[in-house]
Amino acid sequence: MKNLTKLALAGAIAAVTATASMAQELYTPNLSYRTGPFAATGIPLMNGQRDYMLMLNARDGGIGGVPVNFEECETGYSTEKGVECYERTKGQAIVTQPWSTGITLQVLPLTNVDEIPILAPGYGFSPMSDGKVFQWAFNMPAGYWDAASMILNELGGGTPAGLAGKKIGFLHLDHPYGKEPIPFFENMAAEHGFEFLPIPVGLSEMQNQSAQWLQIRRERPDYVVMWGWGAMNAGAITEAVKTRYPMDQFIGVWWSGHDADLAQVGADGAGYRSISWSQPQNDSGVMQAVNEHVVSAGDSLASDEERSGVFYQRGVVMSMMLAEAIGNAQAEFGVSEISASQLRWGLENINLTADRLAELGATGMVSPFSTSCSNHTGHAGGWMLQWDGEKFVQASDHLTSDMDAIKPLIAAAAADYAAANAPWPTNDDC
Amino acid sequence: MLYRIAGQFKTSYQKDQALFPVQQDAWLLGIILLFAWLILPLTASEFVFQTLLIPVLIYALAATGLNILTGYAGQLSLGTGAFMGVGAYACYKMVTIFPDLNLFIAVLLSGTFSAMVGVAFGLPSLRIKGFYLAIATLAAQFFLIWLFEKWAWLYNYNASGAIQVPNLDVFGIAVAGPLATSMAQYYFILIVVTLITVLVINLTRGNQGRIWKATRDMDIAAELIGINLLKSKLMAFAVSSYIVGVAGAMFVFLWRGAAEPNLFDIELSFRVLFIAIIGGLGSILGNWLGAILIVALPVILNTVPGVVGLEIKSATVEHINVMIIGALIIFFLIVEPHGLARLWALIREKLLIWPFPH
After folding, report:
1. Which pLDDT value is given to residue B272?
2. What is the pLDDT of residues B52-107, one digit of tens each?
3. A125 to chain B nearest CA, in Å?
């Protein structure tokens, strides 16, 4: 009995101290997926995000002197668990990182009511770029339509007009995520006179794409562009190797550029390209800081190999953007413990110039960009990364997207969304 | 002690066949209803509403629908998730085509669409039985999911292929969409679930219920005593799919707020089937016990380390959670293979004759 009382007392004290410490931290929960079918691609990204925040806590005592509580809530990529996590964390959270297009779609309509910003770096819903309509959602530094545009620019030799008369196969996951860029591709195909051929891969056939690759062999597209995730990437790449599709005509989006997927085929995959808004820089200042404060201390969950990969370092950049936004908000409002709406201001006023990136030790990891009240994406542009048989290397100059083509699409899609969800408040001051 | 029935005399056949032959059962149900209708909604937080109360109600309703087909009429179905999807997409089309339609009517009507689809896929049940029928319903599962993906009209040609619930109100109170409060959604669901549950309890106690049970226990014998098997089986498919469709419409409209086709994938079918099996086939109470075990318990277990003050990684908690739930399912099925409802029935029986066991 005595022991039981002690235990209860200890529990009570722990609970009290836990709530007390809540008051002095920046709570930025991450809806992670380290379990489930997509865990292999999720883990390096989550580790990168986590290690950067741990590094800030160890090196600077957090951001502006306040430690960051980068708690993870496990979703297993399930929308249902994601909503559970959102409900659990929204009380104290200053930001939501939903980590799946499905969860983003669920949480998006709630943002105007709960007033917590969503940060979906490089994923989510492309029209989120329109800050007038999506006041609380951010998908910096680039959206899917940027990716599509950059790929077309690169393939067409600088302009999509160079693709006239060619045929592009679009191998995509038959899911909101994979369907995102289709409207943009269709517009560009009509405008520039190339043939666009969507080839969907159902969620149940991700690992066995023989039917899709048979179609590719029959249609002989000049290029295959892939919007894949999880097991679909590895499936497509092994199938492409098996059917001897020329790898230098096979291009993926940034989520289809995971080192481990290509490592399976090794040298046979050489030539495969993936557009990316981030780039690994193993010698950069920020990676050295992570090594010094997190890895040497034994706090990192990632292996050495994983840390040199594209996804881990992309995770680092994601947390860096969030930390930058928190710092901005702290400076603007003069408080160290910022609220969710203050963080929104911070996210709207990110200005990562080349100088600022050098200061952070992240030169070349992401290209300079800035956000504003009306532009929640920043449209940073990116690079083609090419698999050389062992690792991804930069294979193009800095690419930018065709904003003239994207802007009207964003405005139209955002207006559609607002109309379908009326009454939807918009911010007309932007 | 608690279940002393001394002094409760039944003086007529009607009383003997009443819904609650033992008075204490009625009291117990009264307390549960009091909790469901008053105490829980007044004390629950947003988190409790969204992750415990609302999902348990919806899953229990879906399992009730499946239980009519599988538990009462004996026809194994693996297409529950897809039939839920039919209800959800039907509701979505109705509220977007007729924006002024009352959501109660839309939800109750959407069940009729899934009932029609259910009957269509139930037609083979006259010729094929058991596992073979399960495969036929599996075909429904895959075909319907494929249809939800390919037929763009169903999701109003939305670029992402997902359906998004608009803001809707009933009698001036927002019940669906981002503006709705959890309490309004809870009461909406509670009204529909209570209504359907009362109807189902009486349906299964009555003539139709006996016809289904006869079909389940031995269909040749049932045919010999004059039961029309085609009618009985199709009726089971219709009623079951109707309820499942209503549950699906509420699943999306009053809880999730958005849905992509793969939400209704086979995993959802299995989840509902497990609820029905673990709760107890051929019982109404079992669906509720099963839903609490499968839907609510993992959420509660997830919060335990935080409350006790243990620092465990979220992914580890998830792994431990899966292990605990798995162990519990095996434990309960070993202790009582007929499900939680049977377990409760045994406990109740023991309490009735306490302190004089056989």
Report:
1. 93
2. 899 999 999 999 999 999 999 988 889 999 999 999 999 999 998 998 889 999 99
3. 9
Asked whether residue B300 carries a pLDDT value surpassing 80, the answer given is yes
Q: Which residue of A has its CA nearest to B146?
A: A202
Paired sense of beta strands A383-387 and A392-394, if any:
antiparallel
Residue B287 lies in a domain: no
β-bridge partners, B333: none
Residue with tokens 């040749």: B220
Domain housing B248 = 22-263
Report the C-alpha gap between A352 and A358 in whole angstroms. 10
Number of domains in chain B: 1
Residues of A numbered 180-199 whose beta carbons fall under 8 angstroms of chain B's beta carbons: which are they?
180, 182-183
3-state DSSP of A225-271: EEECCCHHHHHHHHHHHHCCCCHHHEEECHHHCCHHHHHCCHHHHCC
Is residue A67 less than 8 Å (CB to CB) from chain B?
Answer: no
Contact B178 A113 (CB under 8 A): yes
Which top CATH class is A145-278+385-407?
Answer: alpha beta
Q: Do A175 and B166 touch (CB under 8 A)?
A: no
For the range A70-73, what are the long-range contacts, defined as Cβ-Cβ under 8 Å and sequence gap of 24 or more? A70/A28, A70/A29, A70/A30, A70/A319, A71/A27, A71/A29, A71/A30, A71/B314, A72/A29, A72/A30, A72/A31, A72/A32, A72/A34, A72/A46, A72/B313, A72/B314, A72/B315, A73/A29, A73/A30, A73/A31, A73/A32, A73/B314
A8-44 burial by CB neighbour count: b if 16+ within 10 A, else e?
Answer: eeeeeeeeeeeeeeeeebbbbbbbbbbbbbbbbbbbb
What angle (nearest 5°) sits at the alpha carbon of residue B183, between those of residues B180 and B187? 105
Q: What are the backbone dihedrals phi and psi of residue B250, each rounded to the nearest 5 degrees, phi first? A: -70, -35
pLDDT at A221 over 90: yes
Instruction: Evaluate whether residue B166 is within a structural domain.
Output: yes
Same fold, A24-143+281-380+408-420 and A145-278+385-407: yes
Half-sphere exposure of B253 (CA within 13 A, CB side): 37
B316: in domain = no
State the Cα–Cα distance between residues B114 and B148, nearest whole angstrom.
Answer: 13
Q: What is the pTM of this model?
A: 0.82
Nearest-5° angle of CA B123, CA B128, CA B133?
Answer: 80
- Per CB-CB distance under 8 Å, the chain A contacts of B146 are 202
How many Cβ atoms are within 10 Å of A112's Cβ, its own excluded? 18
Domain residues of chain A, as ranges? 24-143+281-380+408-420, 145-278+385-407
Per-residue confidence band for A5, with pLDDT thresholds at 50, 70 and 90: very low
Express each pLDDT in A266-301 by its tens digit. Answer: 889 899 999 999 999 888 899 999 888 988 888 888
Q: Name every residue whose Cβ is closer than 8 Å to that of residue B231 and which is 6 or more positions away in sequence.
A: none
Q: Is A351 helix (H, G, I), strand (E, B) or coil?
A: strand
Q: Identify the pLDDT of residue A80.
A: 81
> Does A386 lie at the interface with B, CB-CB under 8 angstroms?
no
In a domain, B280, yes or no: no
Statement: A24-143+281-380+408-420 belongs to CATH 3.40.50.11810: no
Which residue type sits at B145? Answer: I
The Cα of A198 is separated from the nearest Cα of chain B by a number of Å equal to 13
Residue-averaged pLDDT of chain B: 88
Please return the burial class of A415, using the count of CB atoms within 10 Å of its CB with bins 0-12, 13-18 and 19+: middle
